[in-house]
Amino acid sequence: MTxxxxxxxxxxxxxxxxxxxxxxxxxAIVPGWFTETAGRKIVDLSDHIKKRRMGAKxxxxxxxxxx
Length: 67
Prior knowledge:
single chain; mainly alpha
């Protein structure tokens, strides 16, 4: 993976987490809104990272925080 590819992937995940954080803040004010948004997105991101790890040349050498 190139530096640019890594940066783009990290930025995408970062922006998704920021959006989910916003949904959580809104949910704190209006409990009926965004009731499943954060949980669903976290599961999706976890699955995405696990798939990337399994597709790597040496998946057992990936750290838990590599995206």
